[in-house]
Automatic annotation (TrEMBL):
<dbReference type="GO" id="GO:0030976">
    <property type="term" value="F:thiamine pyrophosphate binding"/>
</dbReference>
<dbReference type="GO" id="GO:0005829">
    <property type="term" value="C:cytosol"/>
</dbReference>
<dbReference type="Pfam" id="PF16078">
    <property type="entry name" value="2-oxogl_dehyd_N"/>
</dbReference>
<dbReference type="Pfam" id="PF00676">
    <property type="entry name" value="E1_dh"/>
</dbReference>
<keyword id="KW-0786">Thiamine pyrophosphate</keyword>
<dbReference type="Pfam" id="PF02779">
    <property type="entry name" value="Transket_pyr"/>
</dbReference>
<dbReference type="GO" id="GO:0006099">
    <property type="term" value="P:tricarboxylic acid cycle"/>
</dbReference>
<dbReference type="InterPro" id="IPR005475">
    <property type="entry name" value="Transketolase-like_Pyr-bd"/>
</dbReference>
<keyword id="KW-0324">Glycolysis</keyword>
<feature type="domain" description="Transketolase-like pyrimidine-binding">
    <location>
        <begin position="596"/>
        <end position="789"/>
    </location>
</feature>
<protein>
    <recommendedName>
        <fullName>2-oxoglutarate dehydrogenase E1 component</fullName>
        <ecNumber>1.2.4.2</ecNumber>
    </recommendedName>
</protein>
<dbReference type="InterPro" id="IPR011603">
    <property type="entry name" value="2oxoglutarate_DH_E1"/>
</dbReference>
<comment type="function">
    <text>E1 component of the 2-oxoglutarate dehydrogenase (OGDH) complex which catalyzes the decarboxylation of 2-oxoglutarate, the first step in the conversion of 2-oxoglutarate to succinyl-CoA and CO(2).</text>
</comment>
<dbReference type="InterPro" id="IPR031717">
    <property type="entry name" value="ODO-1/KGD_C"/>
</dbReference>
<comment type="subunit">
    <text>Homodimer. Part of the 2-oxoglutarate dehydrogenase (OGDH) complex composed of E1 (2-oxoglutarate dehydrogenase), E2 (dihydrolipoamide succinyltransferase) and E3 (dihydrolipoamide dehydrogenase); the complex contains multiple copies of the three enzymatic components (E1, E2 and E3).</text>
</comment>
<dbReference type="GO" id="GO:0045252">
    <property type="term" value="C:oxoglutarate dehydrogenase complex"/>
</dbReference>
<dbReference type="InterPro" id="IPR029061">
    <property type="entry name" value="THDP-binding"/>
</dbReference>
Length: 942
């Protein structure tokens, strides 16, 4: 009976091809409820081995396809009956091989300090698979494990498995679904038993790089004892790892490598890999001021760039600047890499390599790591795979314990979400580190996916050099105190093996120290006269003082031509009814038959920039159509779901127009776009929030990069943020883009904060951002109800002959001499004020719009006010509560301008708005409506 069932399974297509996933699902269903699967499947699953003394459900879950493959091979290679003892043992051997592939990493010798509590791995015991020592000399089929050898004694099979999966490299690849990738990785480790034979020259080079890593730390420790440097002691193998990634990458044709990392080992990387002159580092330790303007930053946040020579030619290296938010640099690196790849038309990601270096606790603990992995294969953010390196000190912060820093077995488990292979490697075995590094880069180049190297090491000193770690980690630091360095252990090994003499090993130490003391470069491959064509050219954008004006008008005929092109929909593209109406209205706007709305003017700004040679990139959670359906830059064919993007078809040879709806992230996406904008000065790079207030999920990006990157690091950035903002009665989380937070961070002309209220204003504002050579972040409070407001319209002439007005004067036909009150405002509230004034015939009140709140336009505001010679009061009106919006951050600017008037009204500046509130807005429509009515009336009467 059972034999017949098994025969049916072997020969059925149900266990092959696309049905494999079905079989796997059945097995998972069986584990949850055996009675829920068909009887024939239950019979087979019941026959799977169980843990001695346990139940069938103790069997570790492994892809069922391998069970069938192994059993199938056993059936083909045995001449005995299917139920014979030899056949059963053959199956058990194949299952044992598979168990090592799945769980060998849990037994691997990857901890230099041998602190890991052993994890029981019953799958790796012979008895688990109903084998014994009596079977060790019996030959069994090896499946795919022994390349070129069909059969081998069980003893040799087990020894090979132990060497491959349980020595200095713990290999996690069996979570990968793709069979080709998995077999490729198995072959790379199994073919050499995870221990390839490197030449003496290669191993000497490894020792030399370890000597450099240790030598720098020893030198700095003796010269600056107790000074913070976040040294690499205990993780010195990181330096030869990086050296190999760069050199091997160059051999693959990589032209640029962008690196992100936090503090640990950063100074060592700067000096020994990127080639920073040690004398410059010493100046930083001595506290010398190294930049003319700005605040500067601590030495272990600084970025750097250089060129090195590799077997494939010159390679440009760029180390990203990074704040103390440890993992936030990861998506910044990805954005910079994508910009470089786009510049090179490197669609596959073969020419620019991202390397992100992490700490163990931060990698497991910070959500932006998950977000960065999640973006790795998406259309908008993919970069052809990233090499992730975890410098795993096994302690995180000084007082941490793994039980407190994560809920997973490894700090790297988060990477399994994208099926990235993970190589845990013992930092005290440089040969194993080199092999894992080579396989990692080869995998990235072959499959264009992320890969993780978990460099398991330790931290010889505390979290920083002023910290005493033994107070909270006594057992670990007792071991560390007695433990020789990686360099010492490797030098001893090479001397014992006759690769070099003790004198040779000592000479390496002396040579390196002499170079350091002489102030010589100590990065072996540094190019002294680099090929500047590998650089991003920022020269045209340097040294420009602030200017709010630019010639942004566009000749009428060109406007009409481009407007016509951006409204063209090819034959065969069936447009949804409401979208068709939008495009029909845009054609009327192009012909002058309708006033221009926001979506038309914004989209036409992109068209004109593309026509002038400027690439445009827009991402965000709903940017294709716009959260409020105003943009519709992406047209979806109702016939087949295909898309047409008119702005990508404006003309032959046009620059790239990129528009992608992002995955549901703010932090990683905004950081990515910041990285992109800092690497693409000629582009208009835009991130749009679904609702403006959602940017607070990326507040760290604004705080650490956008607002302060220039003053800390001298990093220019022209990133534009579009943040929908406006009080429409939608509650606390859908009203305010937190204008006050941006204004509070404004100083030294670090960024622009604008609140445009007409289509012409957004047209000229977006064009100004690119046409000027000045590069500053632009924060735009974009409207919601104004997208279709009947009064918020412009004309083609406004676009052709206008410019961005930082202050819009009163649009009415008031007699300036009769004006006794001026209301200043920003944003949508202007239209509420104008409607109230008209309804109540208040011809004694002028309404001015301040469209740029920072840098504050004092001169322009004065020009708009100076003709009102009979003013008695000046009011600032805002929709936001008293403690929010522009009031606190901008009132001193307004008072200064009002004081410049003949009657000096600065001291009489009045406020009209919502009362102070902990929440940004009311949640009840009735409350919202009453507050809105009151603040408008107050503006005229307060």
């Amino acid at each position: 009976m059972q034999q017949g069932i098994m025969e049916l399974m072997w020969n059925s297509s149900h266990v092959s091809g696309s049905n494999v996933h079905y079989v796997e699902a059945l097995y998972e269903q069986y584990l949850a409820d055996p009675g829920s699967v068909p009887e024939e499947w239950r019979t087979y699953f019941d026959q799977l081995p169980s843990v001695e003394g346990g139940s069938t459900h103790d069997v570790p879950l492994s892809p069922v396809r391998h069970q069938f493959e192994q059993l199938g091979r056993a059936r083909r290679t045995t001449t005995a009956a299917a139920d014979s003892g030899e056949s059963k043992k053959q199956v058990k051997v194949l299952q044992l091989i598979n168990a090592y592939r799945f769980r060998g990493h849990q037994k691997a010798d990857i901890d230099p300090l041998d602190l890991r509590s052993p994890v029981p791995v019953p799958d790796l015991d012979l008895s688990f698979h109903q084998l014994s020592k009596d079977d060790l000399d019996t030959e069994f089929q090896t499946g795919s494990f022994f390349l070129g050898i069909d059969k081998a004694p069980l003893r040799e099979i087990v020894e090979a498995l132990e060497q491959t999966y349980c020595r200095s490299i713990g290999c996690e690849v069996m979570h990968i679904v793709d069979t080709e990738e998995k077999r490729w990785l198995q072959q790379r480790f199994e073919s050499v038993r995870s221990s390839p034979k490197f030449s003496d020259d290669v191993r000497k080079h490894l020792l030399e790089r370890l000597t450099a890593a240790e030598g720098l730390e020893n030198y700095l420790a003796s010269k600056y004892p107790g000074t913070k440097r976040f040294g690499l002691e205990g993780g010195e193998s990181f330096i030869p790892m990086m050296d190999e990634l760069i050199q091997r990458g160059g051999g693959y044709g990589v032209k640029e490598v962008v690196i992100g990392m936090a503090h640990r080992g950063r100074l060592n990387l700067l000096v020994n890999i990127l080639g920073k002159n040690p004398s410059e580092l010493i100046d930083e330790f001595d506290g010398k001021k190294l930049i003319e303007r700005g605040s500067g930053d601590v030495k272990y946040h600084q970025g750097f760039s250089s060129n090195v020579m590799t077997p494939g030619g010159e390679v440009h290296l760029a180390l990203a600047f990074n704040p103390s938010h440890l993992e936030i640099v990861s998506p910044v690196v990805e954005g910079s890499v994508r910009a470089r790849q786009d510049r090179r038309d490197d669609l596959e990601g073969t020419k620019v390599l991202p390397i992100n270096i992490h700490g163990d606790a931060a990698f497991a603990g910070q959500g932006v790591v998950m977000e960065t992995f999640q973006m790795s294969q998406t259309r908008a953010y993919k970069t052809g795979g990233t090499v992730h390196i975890v410098i795993n000190n096994q302690v995180g912060f000084t007082t941490s314990h793994p039980q407190d820093t994560r809920s997973t077995e490894y700090c790297t488990d988060i990477a399994k979400m994208v099926q990235a292979p993970i190589f845990h490697v013992n930092g005290d075995d440089p040969d194993a580190v080199l092999h894992a590094t080579q396989v990692a880069l080869d995998y990235r180049q072959q499959f264009k996916k992320d890969v993780v190297i978990d460099l398991v090491c330790y931290r010889r000193r505390g979290h920083n050099e002023a910290d005493e770690p033994s107070g909270t980690q006594p057992m670990m630091y007792r071991k560390i105190k007695e433990h020789p360095s990686s360099r010492t252990l490797y030098a001893q090994r090479l001397v014992e093996q006759g690769v070099l003499s003790e004198d040779d090993a000592k000479a390496m130490i002396e040579t390196y120290r002499e170079d350091l003391m002489a102030g010589n470069h100590v990065a072996n491959a540094l190019v002294q006269e680099p090929n500047t064509s590998l650089f991003v050219d920022w020269q045209p954008y340097l040294g420009h003082e602030w200017s709010g004006h630019a010639e942004t008008g566009v000749e009428m005929k060109r406007l009409q031509r481009l407007a016509g092109k951006m409204c063209e929909i090819p034959d065969g593209v069936e447009v949804q009814r409401q979208v068709a109406k939008i495009y029909e209205d845009r054609r009327k706007m192009q012909a002058g038959g309708l006033g221009l709305n926001w979506g038309f003017a914004e989209t036409l700004a992109y068209a004109t920039l593309l026509d002038e040679g400027h690439p445009v990139r827009i991402t965000g959670q709903d940017v294709g159509r716009g959260t409020f359906s105003h943009r519709h830059a992406v047209v979806h064919n109702q016939k087949d779901g295909s898309v047409h993007v008119p702005l990508q078809h404006m003309g032959d040879g046009q620059p790239r127009f990129t528009i992608h709806d992002s995955f549901l992230s703010e932090e990683a996406v905004l950081a990515f776009e910041y990285g992109y904008a800092t690497t693409a000065p000629n582009h208009l790079v835009i991130w749009e929030a679904q609702f403006g207030d959602f940017f607070n999920g990326a507040q760290v990006v604004v705080d650490q990069f956008i607002s302060s990157g220039e003053t800390k690091w001298g990093r220019l950035c022209g990133l534009t943020m579009l943040l929908p903002h406006g009080y429409e009665g939608q509650g606390p989380e859908h009203s305010s883009a937190r204008l006050e937070r941006f204004l509070q961070m404004c100083a030294e002309h670090n960024m622009q904060v604008c609140v445009p209220t007409t289509p012409a204003q957004i047209f000229h504002l977006l064009r100004r951002q690119v046409i000027r050579k000045l590069r500053k972040p632009l924060v735009v409070m974009t409207p919601k109800s104004l997208l279709r407001h009947k009064e918020a319209v412009s004309s083609l002439d406004d676009l052709a002959n206008g410019h961005f007005h930082m202050v819009l004067p009163d649009q009415g036909s008031l007699d300036a001499g009769q004006v006794k009150r001026v209301i200043m405002c920003a944003g949508k509230v202007y239209y509420d004020l104008a409607a109230w004034r008209e309804e109540n015939e208040r011809n004694d009140t002028a309404i001015l719009r301040i469209e740029q709140l920072y840098p504050f336009p004092k001169e322009e505001l004065f020009e708009a006010l100076k003709d009102y010679v009979n003013l008695e009061s000046v009011v600032w009106c805002q929709e936001e509560p008293l403690n929010q919006g522009a009031w606190y951050s901008s009132q001193h600017h307004m008072r200064a301008v009002a004081d410049m008037l003949n009657n000096g009204l600065g001291g009489e500046l009045k406020f009209a708005g919502r009362p102070a509130s902990a929440a940004p807005a009311a949640g009840y429509m009735s409350v919202h409506t009453e507050q809105q009515r009151q603040l408008v009336e107050d503006a005229f009467n307060v």
